[in-house]
User: Which sequence fits this backbone?
């Protein structure tokens, strides 16, 4: 099957455009930090949804973020775009 090698599905690398599409107009340093983690699109989508506060608080409490999603959330939430919202 195309895309399979040794039983693993190849993933398409996330681009700077993907980061900005999902997280908004974040800074270049934030985009670079996100890309350095080599995230999957799914991890980036989940982190961005938590960042935007999507879903109910109860739902988010039942699904705490961890691992790469938590790392991405920390990177994105420290961008000036979102850091100003917390004040």
Assistant:
């Amino acid at each position: 099957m195309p895309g399979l090698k040794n039983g693993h599905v190849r993933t398409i690398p996330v681009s700077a455009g993907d980061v900005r599409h999902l997280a908004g107009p974040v800074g270049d340093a934030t985009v670079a930090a996100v890309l350095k983690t080599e995230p999957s699109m799914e991890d980036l989508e989940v982190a961005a949804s938590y960042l935007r506060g999507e879903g109910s608080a109860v739902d988010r409490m039942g699904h705490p973020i961890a691992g790469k999603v938590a790392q991405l959330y920390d990177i994105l939430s420290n961008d000036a775009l979102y850091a100003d919202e917390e004040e």
